[in-house]
Amino acid sequence: MAKKKKRRIVVPPIKGTKSLGADYRRKLNQFGRALIAEVKQEVLAFLKAQESAYAMDGVADQLARIFAKLKGKFTGHATLSFAEATASQFVHKINATNKSKFDRAMARAFRGVNLNSIIADEGLEELIALNVHKNTGLITSLPDEYIKQVETIVNNNVASGAKYATIEKEIVSKTGVNSKLFGRIKTIAMNESQTINSQLSLRRTTKLGITRGIYRTSRDKAVRPSHRALDGQEFELSKGAWSKMENKYIQPGITDINCRCGYSPIIEV
User: How many folded domains does the chain comprise?
Assistant: First the structure.
């Protein structure tokens, strides 16, 4: 008797929710603006008051104490508490949204079969905890990076005898809305929302015994050429899609920073 050929069901990609990344970015931007305001207040007020004495002994020591105070404040308990709470809320919201979308997609694919008994014990606690810890670290790194940037600007200018107006202008121009700080925040919010969603999708998919998928890009101009070449390629979920252009396996949405790619799980029934 001929063996019955299995039917393949291609499930649409489990896409992330952009609003979660946008909300995360807004919260980090608020933190960033508060950080900038305080640094400017402490540093610029001192520089303006001491402009005529930049070359005098003790100015370097006073600046060092100001920056040490700022670093202590923004790497202390209050910042850590904010980082832990913000990261935890962000990661758990992504998890809840991903689970809801994943369950609906699989229910449709399995024609309404109740999957609770299969996926109830997901064992994702460790993955969630790791991402909370990672994002807590990313948030707490922001003040240190920003304060070091300002400290370098100030020390270089004071050492060269620059006027207060020159120092103020450089600090404002390099630490404003287009600064590295806000660029870093944008990257964190975008990348983490995409990466965490992709990690959760992959873990939930493989927990159901699904082993293969089809690579999907967002099919716009921003897609990397190496990722565009993978669009539509079938691959093993445990490895990722093999990229000849980059000579490596790529897990969509995970391997490369700010990757917006995903995959369609393949179910054989």
Answer: 2
- Whether residues 74 and 35 share a domain: the answer is yes
Please tell me what DSSP assigns to residue 226. Answer: H
- Give pLDDT tens digits for 212-265: 999 999 999 999 999 999 999 999 999 999 999 999 999 999 999 999 999 999
Q: Is residue 7 part of a domain?
A: no
Q: 111 and 200, same structural domain?
A: yes
Say if residue 97 is in the same domain as residue 152. Answer: yes
Q: Which residues pair with 268 in a beta bridge?
A: 8
* 233 in a structural domain: yes
Dihedral sign from CA coordinates of 141, 251, 118, 94: positive
Domain check: are 215 and 128 in the same one?
Answer: no
Its domain, for residue 260, covers 210-269
Round to whole Å and give the CA distance between 26 and 18: 12
- pTM assigned to the model: 0.89
